[in-house]
Amino acid sequence: MTKLVTDYISSCPDSKIVLMGYSQGAQVVADTLIGSSTSGFGGGFGGGYGGSSAASSGGLPAADRKNIIAAIQMGDPSHVPGLSTDKGTSTKNGVFPRSNSANYASDGFGSLIQSYCDTGDEYCDSGNSLQVHLSYVQTYGTDATNFVVSKYKAA
Question: Could you give a GO molecular-function term held by this entry (predicted)?
Answer without folding.
Answer: carboxylic ester hydrolase activity
